[in-house]
Amino acid sequence: SISGYGHTVPLSDGGKAFCIIYSVIGIPFTLLFLTAVVQRVMVYVTRSPVTYIHTRWGFSEQLVALVHALVLGLVTALCFFFIPASVFSSLEDDWNFLESFYFCFISLSTIGLGDYVPGEGYNQKFRQLYKVGITFYLMLGLIAMLVVLETFCELQELKRFRKIFYVKKEKAEDRVHIIDHEHLSFSSVSDQAASLREDKLNEPFMDVPPLTYTASDFSSLNR
């Protein structure tokens, strides 16, 4: 569970071992599933509407994206926080609106403290169906929250703000200077070696042995 309320925990060693193995497999699978769903939902909920309004009416794409993100955030807050909080406050006997809103926020933000858990009263009608409905609500709410976050992350204003915290990359000009310096150093060594060979060849009545170089020769040339 991503929310992880913590009101139900394994007690035996076997249960704890199974919980570890299940979490190692289940958490990455859940994240991959949510990522795949969010990427597909983003096409229909964010990218297509912004592109359509921008091309159809000619508004600035950045302005359309900003207004769309704000409207999407308000609709998500209404559908997954305020309305569910009202429903929980009416279905749960001991919860007021603030406690119900608190439960929605703690659950959809994946904090999951476990101090408020719905459907724990044994006298509730359709308790099992109520639990299933809460599961679907949490899954849809997590997808909606991720879609909203991804929508805001694609805004140009936030991208420029995030660049402040990025580590600056090495400039291309600096790399060119380093490469040129290395090339010049190698060329100077080669030129000096060629001139030394030419001087030996010009000396009269001398047998020219095969030209070989050692590391000490290059070090002396560099000096």
Could you give the topology of this structure?
Layout: H1 13-57, H2 61-91, H3 97-108, H4 127-153, H5 156-163, H6 172-202, H7 215-222
Helix pairs in contact: 1-2, 1-4, 2-3, 2-4
Describe this structure as you would to a colleague:
The chain has 223 residues and is an all-alpha fold. Helices cover 73% and strands 0% of the residues. It is built from seven helices and no strands. Helix 1 packs across helix 4. The longest helix has 45 residues, at 13-57. It is globular. The protein starts with 12 loop residues before the first helix and ends with a helix. The relative contact order is 0.09.
Task: Give a quick set of tags describing it.
single chain, 223 residues, mainly alpha, 7 helices, 0% strand, globular, disordered C terminus
**Biggest β-sheet strands, sense, barrel:** none
Task: Summarize the helix and strand pattern as letters.
Answer: HHHHHHH
Helix content: over 70%
- How many DSSP-defined strands? 0
Please tell me how large the radius of gyration is: 34 Å
Transmembrane segments: 20-42, 63-88, 100-117, 129-149
Keywords: Ion channel, Ion transport, Membrane, Potassium, Transmembrane, Transmembrane helix, Transport
InterPro entries: 2pore_dom_K_chnl (IPR003280), 2pore_dom_K_chnl_TWIK (IPR005408), 2pore_dom_K_chnl_TWIK1 (IPR001779), K_chnl_dom (IPR013099)
Protein name: KCNK1 protein
Question: What does this entry show, briefly?
Answer:
With 223 residues, this protein is mostly helical. It is built from seven helices and no strands. It is a multi-pass membrane protein.
